[in-house]
Amino acid sequence: MVASALAVFVGLVVLLLVVVVSMSVKIIPQNHAGIVERLGRYRTSLSSGPHLIIPFLDRVRYRVDQREQVVSFPPQGVITEDNLTVEIDTVIYFTVNDAVAATYEIVSYIDAIHQLTMTTVRNIIGGMTLEHTLTSRDQINRTLGAELDAATARWGIKVNQVELKSIDPPPTIIDAMEKQMRADRDKRAAILTAEGERQSAILTAEGEKQSSILKAEGEKQSAILSAEGERQAAILRAQGEGRAIETVFQAIHNGNADQKLLSYQYLQTLPKIASGENASTWIIPAELTKALGTLGGAIGDVPVDSGGSRREVDLDEEIVDEVPIASEDTSSAVEEAIKAARQAESPVARPDDDEGAPAEDHPTA
Fold first, then answer.
1. The total number of structural domains that make up the chain
2. Which family does it belong to (predicted)?
């Protein structure tokens, strides 16, 4: 009996020692903090690793995780400045820096952060239009993070980052936004098309302008060259005609032409006068015929050999003025021809005729 009782006592003592040791030794994991209370009051905080406490008096009341935590809150309806309701889904990244404050300053810091996030988001989004809200995510994130960090600092919590995971407008607004987006894209496409056509028209006009300028310049140069050519041709023709006249004149003077040659050339010229396009009828006055007959008779009395020069005309030789010497017979014949022509023109005798004789008394050829 005594042995059995002793064995039971020893067992109880050992069990008590095990319980005491287990209650005295506490192991805190890495990046965690233990809050030790003694008889219901805060005593100390335990960092990571093994620790000894007084059993039955001290106990680890809370174990606080000091790693960065991520909390995603469900979407909440928020009204914008233009009275449109949008669903905001937020994500909070935070760290517990002060385990004691997080334990004793707030009952549930997760719920507190949730409620604080919703109220802050409503304040921020309420002063922004829907379009501004959709295009200002970064601004909202920075503003919301700064306000939450300032509000949770007294709880020993550091808000590292806030992200708006989604902003969902109503379906009708989404449809209207899609239509607006399509309209804007169509507008930009039309503007770009019009701008392209404008640039094309400008380039085409510039090309036509340059082409017209070049064409006008070409026509100008062509007209100038044509006028220059015509001027040169006219000058050359005039010079040629002048040279021909000078040559004929030189040939006449160098050849010492007599009255027979001149009369013969005069008679050859008469058919040319009658051969004009408008000269269908040519009337020769009787007085002119009589004068020509008298001239022909006078010319017939001129000797055949007038003593003119028979040398060949040199066109390149300088022109030398020579006074033609006419024979006395030729001079008298010419005077008789001229007198006969005057008589043919005025058959009535004039006071200034030679010796006052009538016209019919003059000799005729």
1. 3
2. Belongs to the band 7/mec-2 family.
- DSSP code string of 114-143: HHHHHHHHHHHHTTS-HHHHHH-HHHHHHH
200-225 pLDDT, tens digit per residue, is 999 999 999 999 999 999 989 999 99
Question: Comparing 10-24, 89-103, 135-149, 268-282, which segment has the lowest mean pLDDT?
Answer: 268-282
Same domain, 141 and 87: yes
Buried b or exposed e, range 69-82, using 16+ CB within 10 angstroms: beeebeebebebee
Strand residues in the chain grouped as ranges (E): 25-28, 32-38, 41-46, 49-52, 58-65, 69-72, 76-79, 85-96, 157-168
CATH code of 157's domain: 3.30.479.30
CB 136 within 8 A of CB 74: no
Residues 353 and 267 placed together within one structural domain of the fold: yes
Amino acid at 250: Q
Judge whether 94 and 69 are in contact, CB under 8 Å: yes
On whether the pTM is more than 0.85, the answer is no
Asked if 156 and 105 count as a contact pair (C-beta separation under 8 A), the reply is yes
> Terminus-to-terminus CA distance in the chain, angstroms?
213
Question: How far is CA 361 from its chain centroid?
Answer: 103
Chain segment 94-105, per-residue pLDDT in tens: 999 999 999 888
Q: How many CA atoms lie within 13 A of 360 on its CB side?
A: 0
DSSP symbols for 188-251: HHHHHHHHHHHHHHHHHHHHHHHHHHHHHHHHHHHHHHHHHHHHHHHHHHHHHHHHHHHHHHHH
Same domain, 355 and 261: yes
In-domain check, residue 133: yes
